[in-house]
Amino acid sequence: MKFATVYYITFILLLPCGAIAQQSVSSTASQSIGQISGTVLDSVTRQPVPFATVALSTSTGNVLAGKITSETGTFMFSGLLPGSYTLRLTFVGYQTRTLTAFALTDQKPGVQLGTLLLHPESRQLNEVVITGQKALIEEKSDRLVYNAANDLTNKGGTAVDVLRKAPMLTVDVTGNVQLRGSSNLKVLLNGRPSGLLARNLSEALKMIPANTIQSVEVITSPSARYDAEGSGGVINIITKKQLKGSSGNLDVTAGNYTQSIGGSYGVKREKFGLTFSGNGNAEREKSVSEMTRISLLNGQPAGELFQRRSANNVHRGWFGDLSLDYAFDTLNRVNLSISTWGGAWPNSSSLYNRFRNAEGIVTQAYNQAVNQQEPFGNIEFNLGYTRAFKRPKQELILLGQYSYTFDNTSYTSDQFTPIGVPIYRETSTNQSHNPQYTFQLDYTHPFSSSGRQVFEVGAKAIRRDVSSRYAIYNSSVGAVDVLLYNVSRSNNFVYDQQVLATYASLKLSNQTKWMLQSGVRLENTINEGRFADSIPPFRIQFTNFIPSLTLSKQLSERQSFKISYTQRISRPMIWDLNPYINASDLKNLSAGNPQLRPELTHLAELSYSLTTKSGAYLNLALYRRETNNSIEEVRTVDTSGVSRSIKQNVARNQRTGLNVNAAGQFNRNWKINGGGEFYHTQFSSTALQVQNSGWLWQLNLNMAYQLPQNYSLQAYGMYSTGWILLQGKNSAWYHYSLAARKEFWDRKASLTLGVNNPFTQPFRQNNESQSSSFRAHTANQYVTRSVKLTFSWQFGQIRAGNEPAGKKIINDDAKAK
Fold first, then answer.
1. Which stretch is the leader sequence (predicted)?
2. Which of 8, 137, 43 lies closest to 803, judged by CA?
3. 2-121 sits in which CATH class?
4. Which CATH number is correct for 244-280+293-799, 1.10.10.10, 2.40.170.20, 3.50.50.60, 2.130.10.10?
5. How confident is the model over 428-454, as a mean pLDDT?
6. How many Å apart are CA 664 and CA 556, to the nearest integer?
7. Model confidence over 798-812: pLDDT tens digits?
């Protein structure tokens, strides 16, 4: 974009004075009423080519004027005299096109050239030299984009490291992700859902290597085209795309807490593309926590539980993806992809328990060894067909998806007296299977070639069939070695969900740069659950009418503002509804709740953006989010010190805040960007008679410096005052990282050395929680100091091109928490 602007300014400065003078003199003798207009499109994708240079000349070759095409590819010359003219179209990456000998006359003063196609260049590049990079943070009409590929500190890391630096996102020490304080998010991978991300987001992100991520899109006010699921908003992780030609990459990371190896190879031709990528990784987690919890009875202490837990686990995972796309012609494309992933997430720990009664006498003291395993796997098929039309932005998309996931959990819990005598044993298995079918149709219709008025309509159907078979075996008093089947805690849970949705959206904009986008989405959901024993079945049906509205104005070339409102819903999924009790720690039980209902959230936002002449960028966003039937995890504690956690629709959740994001550079080698959030959050529950609120803030800063001889440095840091929950609050926490990179082999290979939290060992964070039945303090210690070395190599030959991405299903209704 900058190159095109510079090209245009240079072109205007070099206009021949004689041509301008000639036109000026001639205009005194004849009225200048002629007009020439047209629209420039890519010949392959039929999409607009913005910022292309259009030069207008006389038939004798004298240049009269120059224009830059708009974002919709349009241009217009007015006030022209009758005569013969020549038009020349140029843009980087495209072949130059010249139109000669078209005339304006008194009888025909206007010429509408219609659609003008530019053909992409197909010259092969022996070497790719990047002379400029995108800013780390970019703003688009409905989202903020973090260009992760330009961030050195991500090398050798995972998606957790990437999301930690994305605007408006917060990622804590354990990898839990929040957008403006909400963990009810829709996280997509290349615009499509992922069973991997839906089940356990914090763990799944550790499987995706940062080296494969191109950018992260943060969408706070999704349009009607997006599924209504996700009260916090939508996060879309974009992986790197294959360019034309045959090329690949290899990334190997070695570190004291992270190891990975992965790569990709692809072949792209004019009509055909085939890409394969795969990765395997291992990440170690080490932590120690101490909790003191006092049970309350009528407001008075009824007992005290002390626990010390230590964990040291290695999480291993892998995934692979095979993608195929084929263009029958410039208007018809089909794409097919097969993805698979799997791994094991152990959560084993050693635990010391001590319980004192109300008189302060120790009634229980034991050690516990928990060996918990969570193997999982998934395979997913996507098939899409795109029918484009000659009119820009007009297209019909048909999509289908089938996925199958198994997610098994098992644990063995052994208790011993302080001197090592076995006193209790328990084992559990929970086998879960989830096939899913999705069909989707989307149609986009522009009312004019300018693309200023666009209508979108579509429909979607999802079918999920989930089963969970869980069984508990435990010992009895005096027979520790004999495990008996526990009928009351074992069951077979079958859960079906059907979602039918339709939407319509209208986008209107005018020449004064006002833009209005409004839409509605109607979703009908049916949840059915059946049990093999004792628990009665349930059937829940609900319909949600979801409006969305966005009004924006381009105040000037460098300033804009936007105001938006939408509603979002969060449906309870199987792991929220399944009454299976996880009792790997008998003092801390957790289970799902079949009585959960969906929550409805209202989102409003007002934002302002400014870009200075020097390229500095500032975005301010004031927002309000309100959920009246918020799904929150509620904990109760009895007088024996046993905690039971279950999710309930019992709270009202309100949050008002201001986001600030800024970027700039001190010179051509030193770039800086950062942001912050200042907000007030409030939880209230009439049913539980609980209120919790407070003011909080967080800041982050990212700096990069380019050194001579292909060396570069980068530093990142963030600080947060903590989180407020319904029944408690986490203390402040921080994260910082440093990285240095050396490029070699004609910049096709690099070595990146990165360190995380080098001066922190260990990191400490406290949690305070309370209710009418307990008061607790937890002190956590996490090992976050790590070092890693990453070797990256890009090989093969590529060519410049402009290929559209294949379309895939976006199941952003599958909740990722």
1. 1-21
2. 43
3. mainly beta
4. 2.40.170.20
5. 89
6. 20
7. 444 444 555 556 555
